[in-house]
TrEMBL record:
<keyword id="KW-0378">Hydrolase</keyword>
<feature type="domain" description="YgjP-like metallopeptidase">
    <location>
        <begin position="29"/>
        <end position="236"/>
    </location>
</feature>
<dbReference type="GO" id="GO:0016787">
    <property type="term" value="F:hydrolase activity"/>
</dbReference>
<dbReference type="InterPro" id="IPR053136">
    <property type="entry name" value="UTP_pyrophosphatase-like"/>
</dbReference>
<dbReference type="InterPro" id="IPR002725">
    <property type="entry name" value="YgjP-like_metallopeptidase"/>
</dbReference>
<protein>
    <submittedName>
        <fullName>Metal-dependent hydrolase</fullName>
    </submittedName>
</protein>
<dbReference type="Pfam" id="PF01863">
    <property type="entry name" value="YgjP-like"/>
</dbReference>
Length: 240
């Protein structure tokens, strides 16, 4: 289990600098994540000296700043949500136009290409937001478990014992593989297409064999999902 701290480190590459969040973990490998927001997190072993961490992170400098530059070039595709009729919302990679109507039976449903929100108070934005969140939560539990069962098969054939699956909100990540052997998936993934959901699951299951993003991890991911890099780019562009 990760041991969160308030540590930060500066990663330098040529003239460029970025301040990264430093999280201590019981894993021995150092791992670096560049989030879809462009923020950088370094996961380093408990007890490793800060200078050694800086040195190891510096070796990844070219990759880190290439990721940051790619993210910066993408336009923002999701405007601020107001939960009113006419705006669009994603579900499984498809855009649905929202139709808000008053009803004593609050719920959200898909109807002929529309996302219909039946709300007690259509003008109450927090109420409408909670309705949509509940809808996404229910669909996420159904869809993500289905995709997990499908993607898991080639990893089981490689000797992996079935991990437990946790589906919950995550502020800054699409998923994680914990040292205790659990796969955690972000509820918000239900907005992505199944093809992109599968990439996240495959990414995290590969960490069951290789905790970092090194050559072994990449080789396994490329064997199981040869187009994983294309899917990664598509996911970060679609849900940014």
């Amino acid at each position: 289990m990760a041991l969160p701290t308030a540590e930060q480190i500066e990663i330098c590459w040529g003239e460029r600098r970025v301040t990264a969040e430093l999280t201590r973990t019981v894993r021995r490998a150092l791992r670096i994540d560049v989030r879809p927001t462009g923020e950088v997190t370094v996961f380093a072993p408990v007890g490793e000296g800060i200078e050694e961490i800086r040195t190891r992170a510096h070796r990844k400098g070219a990759w880190i700043f290439a990721q940051i530059d790619t993210i910066a070039q993408r336009p923002k595709v999701t405007p601020e949500r107001r939960y009113i009729s006419g705006e669009t919302h994603l579900l499984l990679g498809r855009q649905y136009r929202l139709s808000v109507e008053e009803s004593g039976d609050p719920h959200v449903r898909i109807d002929s290409g529309r996302m219909v929100m039946a709300a007690r108070a259509p003008e109450d934005q927090p109420h409408c937001r909670r309705l949509l969140q509940a809808f996404y939560r229910l669909r996420a539990r159904e869809v993500l478990r289905q995709r997990f069962d499908i993607v898991l098969e080639p990893f089981v054939r490689r000797g992996l014992r079935r991990p437990s699956l946790v589906i919950r909100p995550m502020a800054k990540r699409w998923g994680s593989y914990t040292p205790s052997g659990r796969v955690v998936l972000n509820i918000d993934l239900v907005r992505a297409s199944p093809r992109l959901i599968d990439y996240v699951i495959c990414h995290e299951l590969s960490h069951a064999f290789y905790p970092d993003h090194g050559d072994g991890w990449r080789a396994l991911l490329e064997t199981v999902m040869p187009d994983w890099e294309e899917r990664k780019e598509a996911l970060e562009a679609a849900l940014r």
